[in-house]
Write a structure and sequence with these properties.
This protein is α+β, with helices and mostly antiparallel strands and 372 residues long. It folds into 2 domains: 4-150, no CATH class; 157-371, no CATH class. Helices cover 42% and strands 19% of the residues. It has 14 helices and 14 strands. The strands form 4 sheets. The protein has an 8-stranded mixed β-sheet. It has a two-stranded antiparallel sheet with strand order 4-5. A two-stranded parallel sheet has the order 11-12. Helix 2 (56-66) packs across helix 3 (113-119), helix 7 (211-224) runs antiparallel to helix 14 and helix 11 runs antiparallel to helix 14. This is DGQHR domain-containing protein.
């Protein structure tokens, strides 16, 4: 590569103290003009650099997408310069940008490092990205711009998850979430659902139940539980909807005083820890007790209804030799608490429904189906 890179660019009329421009370049050209400095400390403890570490899984997702023939990447990479760059006006807002790379990259990549890292090893070296360049007066100004650029508020996760079902060809991780989001939205907006308007979504903020909790139950079950089995039938979508709706409908009938009119603060049943842990109960009821309908689930739940502490009292977890007591409102939506409550409810269902058991799956299958 030559000692100079020259690009035709568009200059934006912005702050009179800054020169801001945009052009297209390949990943190799971007790495020639800009470097990534990871945040760290020198021997004296002085802070140097400011970029976060690479996120391997995120880079792989982007790379998988970019390998497709229809890949587009409209998001621009931001490179900041303090010297060795010359901007010459050509006509109106059209400018020529000349970057001196004879002594290494003069700029710093302040946004877009993951995208560039994903693009770098691809065979199609002609794929270009948009580069937004900014010339700063000094290093302090460059650091300030980095903070301002990277401190924008991201879209709420709830809104992103609601938008996913309408998008095709998503990465595997997002496809799983998309499927769960689609079923969650139907459970929330289908008038035939027992959870109608009860799930909190970006478009339904008055809902009580966290959408992420329901989605976690669905994703785990769809991966290796009851929903995975039902989804294989021709009417799989309907059967999956019916099963989840019937199960949570049965919960509302059997545990009415712990559900109706209550919030996560006043009842751990409608709290994420309860919603997710009861997902284990759905799996045990399905696999062990053969439950398939609202009436089936209701009978299974009736047998444990007097042994729960959703709104008051103290849970006694474990066996007689090792009892752990937790007040009802101490349980939180963290993995240890979800696992503790799930295991406890699992044992209760098995102990109280032995006469109804059709088959005994491995504990690992049911645990995976409920907690993922």
């Amino acid at each position: 590569m030559t000692n100079k890179l020259v690009f035709s660019a568009v200059r934006a009329a912005q702050s009179p103290q800054h020169v801001v421009f945009s052009f297209a370049a390949t990943a190799a050209e971007v790495f020639a003009m800009g470097r990534i400095e990871r945040a760290g400390r020198g021997d004296s403890g002085t802070l140097r650099g400011f970029q976060r570490p690479q996120i391997a899984s995120h880079i792989l997702e982007i790379r998988d997408y970019l390998e497709r023939e229809d890949a587009v990447l409209p998001n621009s990479v931001v490179v900041a310069f303090t010297d060795r760059v010359t901007v010459t006006q050509v006509k109106d807002s059209i400018v020529e940008v000349e970057i001196d790379v004879s002594d290494g990259p003069p700029g710093l990549i302040v946004d877009g490092q993951q995208r560039l890292s994903a693009l770098a090893p691809l065979t199609d070296k002609s794929f270009q990205v948009f580069v937004s360049g900014i010339i700063c007066q000094n290093e302090e100004e460059l650091r300030r711009q980095f903070i301002l650029i990277n401190n924008t508020r991201p879209l709420p996760k709830e809104l992103i998850y609601e938008l996913l079902p309408g998008i095709a060809s998503l990465p595997e991780r997002m496809s799983s979430r998309s499927m769960a989001s689609a079923l969650t939205q139907r459970l929330n907006f289908d008038r035939n659902s027992t959870l109608y308007r009860q799930i909190r979504l970006h478009t339904n903020p008055e809902g009580v139940i966290a959408s992420n909790a329901i989605q976690r139950v669905i994703m785990a079950s769809r991966s290796h539980g009851a929903l995975r089995i039902l989804a294989q039938s021709p009417d799989g979508d309907e059967r999956c909807f019916g099963l989840v709706s019937d199960f949570y409908g049965a919960i509302q009938e059997v545990f009415k005083k712990d559900w109706v009119g209550l919030s996560p603060k006043t009842s751990r049943l409608v709290h994420s820890v309860g919603i997710i842990s009861m997902g284990r109960v759905m799996e045990v009821a399905f696999h062990v007790c053969g439950a398939r309908t609202f009436a089936d689930f209701r009978e299974v739940l009736k047998n444990i209804s007097g042994q729960t502490h959703w709104t008051q009292g103290v849970w006694s977890f474990g066996n007689s030799d090792n009892v752990r007591k937790r007040a009802w409102n101490e349980l939180q939506s963290v993995h240890p608490d979800i696992q503790l409550l799930s295991d406890h409810l699992d044992r209760l269902v098995r102990q109280t429904n032995r006469d109804h058991s059709l088959q005994e799956p491995t504990i690992d299958l049911v645990r995976k189906a409920a907690t993922g």
